[in-house]
């Protein structure tokens, strides 16, 4: 079965979702992200994707207290991203219970630094964030587009041991218009052994089942779940096709 990864995005210590990464299009779903995390665990989810949106904006980790509370008050496997720019930021995330960190912008702007982190912390603990807009990688909370095109970007780091990639199609994110399945299939065709995490646009249980049928290894979802469009029990009890 496809790995199911609910997302908690944090601004000002609250659980929110943005539309297409726009901080002006923000919906607050819960004042306490830890309560949300406990609910996910109670439903049967094992994994959680936590994004420090304040951190992404300010370029350093901000909501470390929320991360620590989630990892101490639940047994969820947490991957954490948003604002990780230094080795100290990575260490802070790990020291506060993150099992993995998601890194995007640094991999674009400082490739040698990112490669050194792969060696220092281990590629299995790093998720390469590949945020895509019009086929190009976008950075710094999606405020800037780079000159990096997606597949060569992935190839560079797969060559250095990257196994986990979180790919977000920005034009889809928070829109509930369905995931960019053609994009994910293109990636999996090129790199069949990659643990690809699809992100952006998931609107329903059926979207996730379609990703499962297409052989996508994992999916992150947020807004669709918070708006009652995803049947957690159906997904968690779905007969494995593998």
Question: What is this entry, summarized?
Answer:
By secondary structure, the chain is an alpha/beta fold.
Question: Topology, pairings included?
Answer:
Blueprint: E1 3-11, E2 14-19, E3 22-30, H1 33-43, E4 47-52, H2 53-58, H3 64-73, E5 77-81, H4 87-95, E6 100-103, H5 105-109, H6 111-121, E7 126-133, E8 136-139, E9 144-149, H7 150-158, E10 164-169, H8 181-190, E11 195-199, H9 205-213, E12 218-221, H10 223-226, H11 232-236
Parallel strand pairs: 1-4, 1-12, 4-5, 5-6, 6-7, 7-10, 10-11, 11-12
Antiparallel strand pairs: 1-2, 2-3, 7-8, 8-9
Helix pairs in contact: 1-3
What does this structure look like?
With 242 residues, this protein is an alpha/beta fold. 37% of the residues lie in helices and 30% in strands. It is built from eleven helices and twelve strands. Strands 1-4-5-6-7-10-11-12 form an eight-stranded parallel beta barrel, surrounded by seven helices. Helix 8 links the parallel strand 10 and strand 11. The longest helix is centred in the first third of the chain and has 11 residues. It starts with a strand and ends in a 6-residue tail after the last helix. 45% of the residues are buried. The model has no long low-confidence stretch (mean pLDDT 93).
């Amino acid at each position: 079965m496809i790995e199911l990864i609910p997302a908690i995005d944090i601004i000002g210590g609250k659980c929110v979702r943005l539309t297409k990464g726009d901080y002006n299009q923000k919906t607050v779903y819960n004042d306490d992200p830890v309560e949300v995390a406990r609910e996910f665990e109670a439903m049967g989810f094992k994994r959680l994707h936590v994004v420090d949106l304040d951190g992404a904006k300010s370029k350093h980790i901000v909501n470390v207290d929320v991360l620590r509370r989630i990892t101490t008050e639940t047994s969820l496997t947490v991957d954490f991203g948003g604002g990780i720019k230094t080795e100290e930021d990575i260490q802070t995330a790990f020291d506060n219970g993150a099992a993995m960190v998601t890194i995007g912008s640094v991999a674009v702007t400082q490739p040698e630094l990112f490669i050194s982190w792969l060696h220092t912390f281990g590629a299995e603990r790093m998720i390469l964030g590949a945020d895509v807009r019009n086929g190009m990688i976008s950075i710094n909370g999606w405020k800037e587009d780079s000159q990096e095109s997606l597949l060569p970007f992935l190839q560079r780091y797969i060559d250095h041991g990257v196994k986990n990639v979180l790919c977000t199609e920005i034009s889809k994110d928070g829109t509930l218009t369905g995931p960019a399945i053609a994009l994910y299939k293109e990636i999996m065709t090129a790199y069949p052994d990659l643990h690809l995490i699809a992100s952006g646009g998931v609107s329903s249980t059926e979207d996730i089942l379609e990703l499962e049928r297409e052989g996508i290894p994992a999916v992150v979802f947020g807004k669709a779940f918070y708006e009652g469009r995803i049947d957690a029990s159906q997904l968690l009890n779905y007969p494995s096709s593998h």
